[in-house]
Write a structure and sequence with these properties.
Blueprint lengths: L9 H14 L2 H13 L19 E4 L2 E3 L2 E9 L1 H4 L2 H28 L11 E12 L3 E11 L6 E10 L4 E3 L8 H24 L18 E5 L8 E6 L12 E6 L2 H5 L14
């Protein structure tokens, strides 16, 4: 799946001196200059404190083994998230909650299958990774990809998005920037269904005679991501259908991107319209 959607020390005394000089009379300035000529040499300036490194990406893992049983946990986000303390705190809290839940589930499975050789029953995997879709002046648009395994024939995967509003210092679901899901459905559904049909035919290598098993899903069932081609406005919108949403598990997920049109702009809430622009 593609994702889409990015110091005061010695100098202070000099500044104070200049300020005082600006307030002094000419006579005071002359006297000060004469005193400077006979004063002892100034002590060398203290070395500047090292600049703190910019926050980096976070790649957290917590794995464990008990005999043939194993547990793997991974949670990551990019540097753009680390640069926003409130967002970092939010994702850290989510990460810790998910890790605690996985640990409890793993311990329960170890007890339940203690006398079994079903190692798939006691293995646990969790991976969630965040990526930047778009970084524009007011908003940071993010996507996340999730994979979990809790036993069975195969794991499960999913996707989602988040938009961080720097002005309000809060998180929004991408769909929250629109007046309603119905308005977004009207603006995107026809284009989405036509593009999805073409993509499915290409992926399957044959025409789809019966689409009743997997009819074209509504926008409400999809992950919506907000993207930008110019780093100033949202002018692209991505739609992702996770496995089982638009096709079988074997087909995987479907991700399609469309330019923002006048109809999409009409569906944006008035207070967010300044962040959007027509796409190409």
């Amino acid at each position: 799946m593609t994702t889409a959607m990015f110091h005061i020390g010695h100098g202070a005394s000099l500044v104070l001196g200049l300020v005082l000089a600006a307030c002094s009379s000419p006579e005071d300035e002359v006297a000060s200059a004469r005193a400077d000529q006979v004063a002892a040499p100034a002590a060398p300036a203290a070395p500047a404190a090292p600049t703190a490194p910019a926050p980096g990406a976070s790649n957290f893992t917590d794995n464990a083994d008990e005999g043939e049983a194993n547990r793997e946990f991974s949670y990551s986000w990019p540097a753009e998230v680390s640069a926003i303390p409130a967002l970092t705190q939010r994702l850290t809290a989510e990460r810790d909650k998910l890790l605690a839940k996985q640990k409890a589930d793993w311990q329960e499975s170890l007890r339940e299958f203690a006398d079994s050789d079903c190692f798939g029953c006691v293995n646990r995997d969790f991976l969630k990774s965040w990526d930047v879709v778009a970084d524009i002046p007011r908003f940071l648009s993010l996507s996340w990809e999730l994979y979990t395994y809790t036993g069975g024939a195969h794991g499960n995967s999913g996707s989602g998005g988040l938009v961080w509003d720097r002005e309000a210092n809060t998180a929004l679901a991408p769909k929250d920037l629109f007046v309603s899901e119905a308005a977004l459905q009207d603006a995107l559904y026809t284009r989405w269904c036509k593009a999805l049909q073409r993509d499915r035919v290409t992926r399957l290598g044959m025409e789809i005679a019966d689409s009743s098993t997997f009819p074209c899903p509504d926008v409400a069932e999809l992950t919506v991501l907000l993207g930008s081609s110019n780093k100033t406005h949202f002018d692209r919108i991505g739609l992702i259908a996770d496995p089982y949403v638009a096709g079988s598990y074997a087909e995987g997920s479907y991700e399609l991107t469309f330019p923002v049109t006048a109809q999409v702009l009409a569906a944006v809430k008035p207070r967010y319209k300044a962040a959007f622009a027509l796409g190409k």
